Amino acid sequence: MFKLLSHRYKKIGLIIAPIGLCLWIFMQLGFVSKLSQLLGITDATILNMSVAILGFFTFLFGTYALAFSKEKVEDEMIKNVRLESFQFAALLQMIALVLGIMIIGFMNNPPKDAGVMIFLSIAILFFWITYILRFNYIIHFRIFRYEK
To answer: Is 14's pLDDT higher than 80?
Structure first.
């Protein structure tokens, strides 16, 4: 049987997932290189790689904590919503993959290996973000309104 994390990890995930995403985006936009120049570091490669790795794994752990944390009350309805959200995210990911591959196939200058890797990474993140958003929307907003 699959074991979920305790409810407190959901709060941890809400804090560290955006921090990790921001770190990775700052590195991609070149802010880390500019910061290293201000600090007088001549070779910013190590700092860039460190921030990228830290940001990626922080975001990954935060997403994991959000996706696999228990709710305060974990019952059959929550398990059912969890399964439906998982199926919905998988369906959307398959549609996005098919459309993305079709678009890449019809491009005049298709992306090289790095572009395909970024596309596949985004497809994986799209799945987990869709799952987390749909699950939390149904549990905290839709059912909450229905109970009132």
So the answer is: yes
